[in-house]
Amino acid sequence: MDGSLGDVSPPGRLAEPGEGISPEELALAARNHGLPLEALRYDITPPGLHYVLVHYDIPEIRDGSVQLTVHGRVRTPLALDLAALRSFPAVTLRVTMECAGNGRARLVPRPVSQPWLVEAVGTAEWTGVPLRLLLAEAGVEPDAVEAVFCGADHGIERGVEQDYRRSLPVDVATGDTPEVLVAYAMNGGPLPPQHGHPLRLVVPGWYGMAHVKWLREIRLTETPFTGFQQTTAYRYRQEPDDPGEAVTRMAPRALMIPPGFPDFMSRTRFVRPGRVLLRGRAWSGEPPVARVEVSTDDGRSWYDAELAPPDGDGRHAWAWQRWQAPWKAVPGTHVLSARATDAGGRVQPLTQLWNRGGFGNNLIQRIVVHCGWGEPIAEWGELRRGASSSPAGTPRP
Amino acid sequence: MDGSLGDVSPPGRLAEPGEGISPEELALAARNHGLPLEALRYDITPPGLHYVLVHYDIPEIRDGSVQLTVHGRVRTPLALDLAALRSFPAVTLRVTMECAGNGRARLVPRPVSQPWLVEAVGTAEWTGVPLRLLLAEAGVEPDAVEAVFCGADHGIERGVEQDYRRSLPVDVATGDTPEVLVAYAMNGGPLPPQHGHPLRLVVPGWYGMAHVKWLREIRLTETPFTGFQQTTAYRYRQEPDDPGEAVTRMAPRALMIPPGFPDFMSRTRFVRPGRVLLRGRAWSGEPPVARVEVSTDDGRSWYDAELAPPDGDGRHAWAWQRWQAPWKAVPGTHVLSARATDAGGRVQPLTQLWNRGGFGNNLIQRIVVHCGWGEPIAEWGELRRGASSSPAGTPRP
């Protein structure tokens, strides 16, 4: 490469006006994937439907080889294998996780990176050791200001070769709101390779970049971490040289299960005239969600959806909440939306919140639905069979 | 919609020269996903890494509600629930499955559809009832020519509203080479929703379109099936009005685990100078694969890889085969490729085999790799830790 690294690992850029998705963005979209929106029907996202973003390659790690080290500004450095980690009290939390770049591909201008639309989310039950217990065991020195987490995934990003690393302030790392976990189980089983097998960090309420996968090292430092993923990436900036604000907790967002059935290529939706139950989920990094409103006229008017409270059990406080709202579909073309407001009064915007990285963009979802036509395209017998097993929202004949 | 259906569900088209990936193609790429190529390291693809293509929505089906009907030209129509299906002898087969459209997005001109690069493949162990046993139970009438399989997924495609349907000739449906399964388990557990929960067809050796998911009806017919997925889609055609040839079995293909480590955005690969073990998998719809060759000079010269035989046990006859080949990486930029030849002498082409649907395109894979630079970008200690858990092919210090 001899100086040519910049050519193959260039700085971030914005797409030109009207520029289609590039081959590089497609290569990321073919590897990483979102939640098919009909899977919002499941309280816990089934394996393979939870969104996945892998910066480099999924590393190959055998359980037997795992040694999580806790060192730096601690009194007693630790080196823990899986058995040692399992000897600590285990906690299971249901957590909704969203990529900080969710919605990026709909921004104008479009930041060129993983091209998410609205689907980079999922909910799982994570089991592991509270990080605060590991840090208490090691004994954090008074001068420690951050915990730096290092994963086993290795690559190059904008010219910087690195292992994936992120940090948390000591008060977050040693706190219990949220309860940060070093997780060794997902939905009751070992972590799948793409979700960090065998160990990952889980930071409830924070965007996905904080949940370091393939975790192998925790270093307490007396100075703030200045690595790539902390100070170059994952900042809210308007200009490249703007130091920017750190990306941390998830903004509130509601998503709707697209009602009816789709066209394969355009993904346009079709519903029969009649009553439709609109359903979906809503979440916030500062839970709970206090209100979900629905619009069926492209945001001109809104009405309240019925919103389920967070499951009473505190283990679900960081998980999405169910909502539903009735709609009477009449012939014509409609634009359906939902928007969430969290307990802190933060509400989803009707116009995009733009930044160079395309982070934390919780612009409301828009679903275009066509209702009714003169002649059913298929015989109604066939339609009924389709409807009987299609997602909620398909009107029953 | 009143006649406007064509506007939202238009005929298939080819991308204009230089046209980027469209929002519609991106919407499909965000829902469906391929196999991250480093996952070729696993004999059986872990949950969530096997490729998935869903034409419409993933239907919601509760196990209790399942009734698989077998009717039409049979002596005794059947209606079977899961318990009844489990009462038949169970067979487990390890099967490599590939989307017929794999490689489509690299074609010039590009057919506009699900934009696969090379990664639409995966291998799983499927357990179920041999279809021939179900058909023997029902008693196929002598005048039956095809079995038509209907799934519960419902949508519109190029203006045609439909439940997903495909057919097989009676001799294939009642044959045992391949052994066609009505599968109720994947890798030892219930089918995940996106893989056809609770029932799907598995047709070893055939492209994915034949493996009907969410299977609920099998109809024996005295005339060939002329439905959309049989006569409009999944045909090898050069012109829109060309009747075309039916897409059936997988063409031979070899894929390589990209060695070294990637740049996040460009996915360009980097390796250190020295010995690299190139590894991958190869398969064919007419197994076994007889030969895999490797090129490290963009196809100018080729040398034989070491190819594992199909696992002796016949249950693996339809699964991919492991291969490996040594390479000495020297500073510079290299293009790595592998190509498979099957027992029938079919070999992957060096130039694209184009058709309007972008089907059965098994053009050889090209991996661009950069080797060596003056100064390591990261300290070697960090690199060593990265390499120790990175995919095969990263040279060990």
UniProtKB/TrEMBL annotation, chains A, B:
Residues 55-228 form the Oxidoreductase molybdopterin-binding domain. Keywords: Metal-binding, Molybdenum, Oxidoreductase. InterPro entries: Ig_E-set, MoCF_OxRdtse_dimer, Mopterin_OxRdtase_euk, OxRdtase_Mopterin-bd_dom, OxRdtase_Mopterin-bd_sf. The keyword Plastid does not apply. Gene3D superfamilies: 2.60.40.650, Oxidoreductase, molybdopterin-binding domain. Residues 274-370 form the Moybdenum cofactor oxidoreductase dimerisation domain. This is Sulfite oxidase. It comes from the Bacteria. The keyword Membrane does not apply. It comes from Streptomyces yanii. Its cofactor is Mo-molybdopterin. Pfam families: Mo-co_dimer, Oxidored_molyb.
